[in-house]
């Protein structure tokens, strides 16, 4: 029996420079796709996979993220007074149980690996998920739930992977692969952002991970990797051979919301998938595409 997965770390300390000026006074994770902020998609996805405890690794200027998960008492009172049932129900549905979100600050931007290390006390001796809110997945079964299913069967580490064009390998963590079994791939090596000519495959890690707590031990060494940052991928690579390690070619489509075109595509895909908006959006899009 594997230890049940109940914890998730959400790294949200990034500056969001690619979305300035929108992110000058607002965290990028508060940018909405249709009507829900990116951070809320990540939390909803994790909760759908049975995760109960969250740690947001924040930085300066990120208080809106903490407020977002608090109860907005005045707002709720006003909505109740005005009999706005639907809006009120929506807020209550998304309300988090008391004490389920903690935060730590990443005081210096030393990379994703360093951000995860900052959550080491929260992680303790438990397996945990990581969700990078910039990566949004539209799927039948929430992506983290797909990873948890594999984790429950195999134990060890599981990452969501997707194929990328060879010329884009320098944007991602890339897998070296062993045995393939359906949608599961054995991970035999990991390289962070290799040049296309050095990439061991075109299978990239997307921002969804289930990891064993041992990764923290390797992160503590603070070894610098690609971009002179402490890379999570490098610490994960050190666990290969010590515990099962699988990549899952998940069902669904991933959108890179850290990129303007990816973010816009996500808006359209998520709007089209919504029964209340899909038909109207499909109708008006035709006018633009044919113009
Ligand atoms: C991070 C990881 C990388 C992963 C990517 C997924 O990179 O370091 O391995 O493939 O997220 O989005 P970043 O996007 O922070 O440069």
Set down the secondary structure blueprint.
Layout: E1 7-11, E2 32-33, E3 36-37, H1 38-47, E4 53-58, H2 63-68, H3 73-81, H4 85-94, E5 101-105, H5 112-118, H6 120-123, E6 128-131, E7 135-138, H7 143-154, E8 157-163, E9 173-181, E10 184-192, E11 203-211, H8 215-219, H9 232-237, E12 245-249, E13 253-256, H10 260-272, H11 278-290
Parallel strand pairs: 1-4, 1-6, 4-5, 8-12
Antiparallel strand pairs: 2-3, 6-11, 7-13, 8-11, 9-10, 10-12
The chain binds 1-O-phosphono-alpha-D-glucopyranose.
Residues 112, 132, 135, 172-173, 192, 204-207, 232-233 line the site of 1-O-phosphono-alpha-D-glucopyranose (G1P).
Describe the protein's architecture and organization.
This protein has 291 residues and is α/β, with parallel strands linked by helices. The protein is built from 11 helices and 13 strands. Strands 5-4-1-6-11-8-12-10-9 form a 9-stranded mixed beta sheet, with helices on both faces. Strands 2-3 form a two-stranded antiparallel sheet. Strands 7-13 form a two-stranded antiparallel ribbon. A hairpin with a 2-residue loop joins strand 9 and strand 10 (184-192). The radius of gyration is 19 Å and the shape is globular. The structure holds 1-O-phosphono-alpha-D-glucopyranose (G1P).
């Amino acid at each position: 029996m594997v230890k049940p997965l109940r914890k998730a770390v959400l790294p949200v300390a990034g500056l969001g420079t690619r979305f300035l000026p929108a992110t000058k006074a607002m965290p990028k994770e508060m940018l909405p796709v249709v009507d829900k902020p990116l951070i809320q998609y990540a939390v909803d996805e994790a909760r759908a996979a049975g995760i109960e405890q969250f740690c947001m690794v924040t930085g300066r200027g990120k208080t809106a993220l903490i407020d977002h998960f608090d109860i907005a008492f005045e707002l709720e009172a006003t909505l109740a007074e005005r009999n706005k049932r639907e809006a009120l129900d929506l807020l209550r549905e998304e309300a988090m149980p008391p004490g389920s979100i903690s935060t730590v600050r990443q005081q210096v931007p030393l990379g994703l690996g360093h951000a995860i290390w900052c959550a080491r006390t929260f992680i303790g001796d438990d397996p945990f998920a990581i969700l990078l809110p910039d990566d949004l997945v539209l799927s039948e079964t929430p992506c983290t739930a797909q990873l948890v299913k594999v984790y429950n069967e195999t134990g060890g580490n599981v990452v969501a992977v997707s194929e990328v064009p060879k010329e884009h390998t320098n944007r991602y963590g890339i897998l070296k692969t062993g045995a393939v079994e359906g949608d599961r791939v054995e991970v035999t090596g990991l390289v962070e952002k290799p040049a296309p000519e050095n990439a061991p495959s075109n299978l990239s890690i997307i921002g969804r991970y289930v990891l064993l707590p041992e990764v923290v031990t390797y992160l503590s060494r603070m070894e610098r990797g690609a971009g002179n940052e402490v890379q999570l991928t490098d610490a994960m690579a050190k666990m290969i051979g010590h515990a099962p390690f699988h990549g899952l070619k998940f069902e669904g489509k991933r959108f890179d919301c850290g990129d303007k075109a990816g973010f816009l595509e996500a808006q359209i895909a998520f709007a089209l998938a919504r029964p209340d908006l899909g038909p109207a959006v499909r109708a008006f899009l035709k006018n633009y595409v044919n113009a």
